[in-house]
């Protein structure tokens, strides 16, 4: 894999991968297919099914039961011997079937990858089986497509990709074609798409640089196949108990044998029968099926809650859980953000209404805001709506948001105040954008404004406040000094401490001689226009689940990108 491919410009990508704007030739593609092999997930050779079944016949407790069964036949107790062997076989079948079904479910990973892919070869657009893709192929991407291989984007038009299969993050990510230098690794680069991810909107072209076992998706899939099975605490405990039972049974049997021969003076044959009978009686024939049935019942119950159990013994292992790490947005919360407060210098405005229906009021000290305040609020929502890749949709199902819930909440609030986003975008069309980056914690959207250009910026309040040189107060722009910045930071901290997620907004009129749109050049000397605070309600049952976990001695760690005070307040509210 080319780990630095995100740092190359489009022309260098074509050169490094040995392809042209017209794509590969058919002959070159065939040669590369022979060299790199088909674009399929590489499977690790598994044990035959018969061996997987046999593993359930020779665990420690099963071996003890085999011995008990053999001894039963030896003393002529054929019915008991047959019953013991039946218990072993039924238990083995039950355990094997449960694990076999779970194994089939994990193999569903293979079905995530597409069957067909659209490529350009010999200058013509053609559809080929996805397994025939090779490094250097120029693929076309459109809304709804599943990306068939890891590829570097060389052309993008409003392209967004859902990478949840790879990262677990449900928010679609905007993709670009220009080179990107400042990322920790190429997986975070916004100019690369990965196999198994889905295009949610827009179109683009990309050059494949990794196929088959070299893709990130295949690497993750192979990790699930290479996991080494470790005995669970229950398996270790049963093995330990079986060894103790075996030792006790043998010692008691030998003791009884000696007593019967040397003290009671029984014939050796009768003494052996009594000794073997005692050893069989000490074997708990019902333990193995009882444990298996209890675990199977738990596994079925968990399956109804969409929790897949691959091995029955794993059910008991969950009882050893001491820490649970969980995402916040969309997991602990509903993922339905609502703007609750707006701060514009220097007024705090309450926003009524909930959900995605754009109905509500803007109140300052319990009264509707004035027309002058509305003008300031609309300036904030121009930045909030322009730095936004979501859409507010009204159809037969009602109002809904496509895209990030946080951005959707801003669009809903903008609609409530009467900001016409579509009309404003026609008046001030977008030139380009600098997508949100978790490292710099900001996003910028650059627009035409008459004969000039304006950059609208949103992001983490403390960063936006630090980057702001000016502030807009009652429609007038004036200088922002350090003391005033600290005052605004305190306002932000006070709002965040109530469990609200806060974003700040600013703008900058760009100089005419600005040639490159980079974060360093665009996001500085900003004019601060205000902040918006949003609330995401918890999912039903979260509070009860937290209480149950705490009663069970389980510590819960909430993982979130929220500001520290916000995260702490939310965690305290949930216990």
In summary, what is this structure?
The chain has 575 residues and is an alpha+beta fold.
> How much of the sequence is in beta strands?
15-25%
Please give the number of β-strands: 22
- Silhouette: elongated
**What oligomeric state is this?**
single chain
The low-pLDDT segments are none
How would you state the average pLDDT, rounded?
84
Report on this model:
Helix 4 packs antiparallel against helix 9, helix 5 runs parallel beside helix 10 and helix 8 runs antiparallel to helix 9. The model has no long low-confidence stretch (mean pLDDT 84). The chain is an alpha+beta fold and 575 residues long. The strands form 4 sheets. Strands 9, 10, 11, 12, 15, 16, 17, 18, 19, 20 and 21 form an 11-stranded mixed beta sheet that branches. The protein contains 19 helices and 22 strands.
Descriptive terms for the model:
575 residues, single chain, alpha+beta, 24% strand, seven-stranded antiparallel β-sheet, eleven-stranded mixed β-sheet
Task: Produce the secondary structure layout.
Layout: H1 10-16, H2 26-36, H3 49-54, H4 60-74, H5 78-106, E1 116-121, E2 124-129, E3 138-142, E4 150-162, H6 164-167, E5 173-174, E6 192-193, E7 198-210, H7 216-226, H8 233-263, H9 268-281, H10 287-304, H11 313-317, E8 323-327, E9 338-344, E10 347-351, E11 362-364, E12 367-368, H12 371-386, E13 391-395, E14 398-402, H13 405-417, H14 421-427, E15 430-437, E16 442-449, E17 452-459, H15 461-467, E18 468-473, E19 476-479, H16 482-496, E20 501-509, H17 519-522, E21 526-535, H18 542-551, E22 555-559, H19 564-573
Parallel strand pairs: 8-22, 18-21
Antiparallel strand pairs: 1-2, 1-3, 3-7, 4-5, 4-6, 4-7, 9-10, 9-21, 10-11, 11-12, 13-14, 15-16, 16-17, 17-20, 18-19, 20-21
Helix pairs in contact: 4-5, 4-9, 5-10, 8-9, 12-13, 15-16
